[in-house]
Known about the structure:
Elements (H helix, E strand, L loop, with lengths): L6 H19 L5 H20 L3 H6 L11
Amino acid sequence: MKKNMGTIDRAIRLVVAAVLVLLYFSGIVSGTLGIISLVVALIFAITSLVSYCPLYAIVGIKTCHHHSVK
């Protein structure tokens, strides 16, 4: 599994995940939408931590830039 997410992309996903969790636990988002928010937050957090997004791989998107040293 090659990394396909850059630092900025990972940071944005972690911030969005944190906001979704805060919205759920503060009671602003609840019910089915709250559960969906938690699932999305979990997916964002996991993909950020491993620097890999399966959807990016399917679509062919890469937000990371690997510089090879010669």
